[in-house]
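An example makes the point: we print one protein in full, the chain in one-letter code, the fold tokenised, without further comment:
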Amino acid sequence: FFMLTTKFKPDEVVVVDMPSSISQILLPETDILQITIDKKGIVYFGVDGQFTRVKMLETMGERHKIEFTPAEKQAFSTVSNFGVEVRQLKQFLNTRPEDRSKIQQPGIPCDSINNQLADWILEARRANSKFRVAVKGDRDANYPVVKKVIAALQLRKVNKFNFITNMENGPE
């Protein structure tokens, strides 16, 4: 007998039509912090690793004075990407997993008044210092939103990150 193992690709919270490029740099399989921007300018956040997700949730709860139950922490550990404010997380996590994909998520705030994206970036990097940051943006994404995401990264001293694109054949 033999055993076969595989790592399943997590469900995407939103479909993104990525721009193409000729870059051949591949992202690693693990230790990825991914920020996704859809064509409407909604920002989603995701990291790999259940332990990392729980640690982030606990520290974000402390920062925003929200206490999460063990069941909510367990639910968050299985969420690969999300796009809700911290104050909406309890309601989101108490929704059945099969119904979460049907929820219209408003996105993670990343403006100068309420920059929760910068907080998530900070807590993710505290939970796992090996994270490589990747931004996955729709080709029709609103530029000012992309600029806000980059500003949130720079606020947390992340000046090196990757844009995820579709592979295109380069010149011969």
In short: The longest strand covers residues 32-37.
